[in-house]
Amino acid sequence: MAFERFKAKKTLDELEEEGDRLTIESENASKEADIAERKAVVAELKKRYGPSWARTLGISKWADMSTLRSFLRGAKKGMEKEVGTVGSTPLSRITSFKGVTRA
């Protein structure tokens, strides 16, 4: 621990090299995270729509992430609308008293 005080300061070139190395490592980590996220989204789409999910949805397998994410959110909202909050049959939706104030 006493030796840490007497450590030689890094030169400007060494600091620049270290900065470049850290920048490259950061970019690599970011790309790996993007790839992992894409794999997770594609796996979820395959789970929901089957192996031909791209053809089912009418999109390219290489669509950007925002498009793929929107299909995941849109599918969830569509399923919620289909099932409904009151009931799953048309009759139960018609006889809903949601929003009616009590007397």
Helix content: 55-70%
**Helix-strand category:** mainly alpha
| Topology pattern, helix = H, strand = E | HHHH
Mean pLDDT score, rounded? 78
Sum up the overall morphology in one term. Answer: elongated
Number of distinct helices: 4
Number of strands: 0
Strand content: under 5%
Low-confidence stretches: none
Largest sheet: none
Cα separation of the termini: 78 Å
Task: Describe the structure using short key phrases.
103 residues; mainly alpha; 4 helices; 0% strand
Structure in words:
The model has no long low-confidence stretch (mean pLDDT 78). The chain is built from 4 helices and no strands. 65% of the residues lie in helices and 0% in strands. With 103 residues, it is mainly alpha-helical. The protein has one domain. The N and C termini lie far apart (78 Å). The longest helix has 38 residues. The radius of gyration is 27 Å and the shape is elongated. Helix 1 runs parallel beside helix 3.
